[in-house]
Amino acid sequence: MSLVLEFLPESGAELECVTGDYEAHARGLGVRFRHEIETICAAILQHPLLWRLRSRGYRRVNLPGFPYYVAYIVEEQRIIVVAVAHASRRPGYFRVVFHSRREQRRGYRTLHHIGEFQLNPEDRLR
Q1: Range of the domain at 16
Q2: Cα separation values, 67 from 2, 23, 61, Å
Q3: 107: Cβ contacts below 8 Å, ≥ 6 apart
Q4: How far apart are CA 60 and CA 50, in angstroms?
Q5: Which H or E run contains 60?
Q6: pLDDT in tens, 46-91
């Protein structure tokens, strides 16, 4: 059984916005941020239950080197990223979106459908 990693539209938009902000701040910083997200997403796919379940029903993984985290839930055969959030700005703001989306069960985009998320091989850090 293989799991699929999906992003809510809001979390995909957050990812794009933060990446753009970092890249505008310093060339290559957005690429580093994406690389960290990609690494964390791969780790989540490998071991989705490794990180503790929070009282609100989601799991959270901190990004090394950046003040952001990935919040996700595990549902049957998919992992849904509900937020790419700053660790100290508006804590838990995504919970409203998360709970309304969980009930709707729609609006998800799979990782391979977010073309901008995938790094080009030449963009990867060495």
Answers
A1: 4-117
A2: 30, 15, 11
A3: 8, 9, 101
A4: 10
A5: strand 59-62
A6: 999 999 998 888 999 999 999 999 999 998 889 999 999 988 876 5
Answer whether residue 100 is part of any domain.
yes
Please indicate, yes or no, if residue 101 is contained in any of the structural domains: yes
Lowest mean pLDDT among 83-87, 92-96, 112-116: 112-116
Q: What is the pLDDT of residues 11-52, one digit of tens each?
A: 899 999 999 999 999 999 999 999 999 999 999 999 999 999
123 within domain boundaries = no
Indicate which CATH number applies to the domain containing 40: 3.30.2310.20
Cα torsion 20, 97, 8, 21 to 10°: value is 0
Q: CA 40 to CA 17: how far, in whole Å?
A: 18
Q: Are 5 and 111 in contact (CB under 8 A)?
A: yes
In a domain, 122, yes or no: no
The one-letter amino acid at 102: R
- Higher pLDDT, residue 22 or 121: 22
The domain total for the chain is: 1
